[in-house]
Amino acid sequence: MIQFAEVIGFSLGWSSLVILCLALFRFKLKAYIPQIIVTSLCLSQVSYTIHAFHIEHLMALIQPTCLFLCICLIIRVRWTHSILMVTITYLLAALIEVCSIYCSLDLTQNISF
Asked: What confidence tens digit (pLDDT) does each residue in 10-61 have?
């Protein structure tokens, strides 16, 4: 049951990243709903496997490669465009993550009870 909850959590995260990727490059999201679901399920299994086998040190190599393969093979985008999509999406997602962590730290430090 814990595995199922983790896979659902991973698939929500991956679906948001895939939607961000497609939206950044102005894809029609409604036309790609089945591909988004399949891609997020595949990538969530990859994430779960990484955590299950404790190979988190390879996460930065495995996950972008799998996202690249999913965009090429499932969403059917040319490999040159896929490389650009994965790179720009990961950089933007990292920037969003850093900004949200900074803002949450800033908010928690300024609140006094």
From this structure: 889 999 999 999 999 999 999 999 999 999 999 999 999 999 999 999 999 9
> What is the DSSP code (8-state) at residue 92?
H
- The Cα-based distances of 39 to 21, 58, 66, 70, 75 in angstroms read 12, 20, 9, 6, 8
The whole-chain average pLDDT of the chain stands at 90
> By the 8 A CB rule, do 64 and 83 touch?
no
Q: What is the rounded CA–CA span in Å between residue 73 and residue 36?
A: 12
Rounded distance, CA 30 to CA 48, Å?
27
Cβ atoms of 21 and 40 within 8 Å: the answer is no
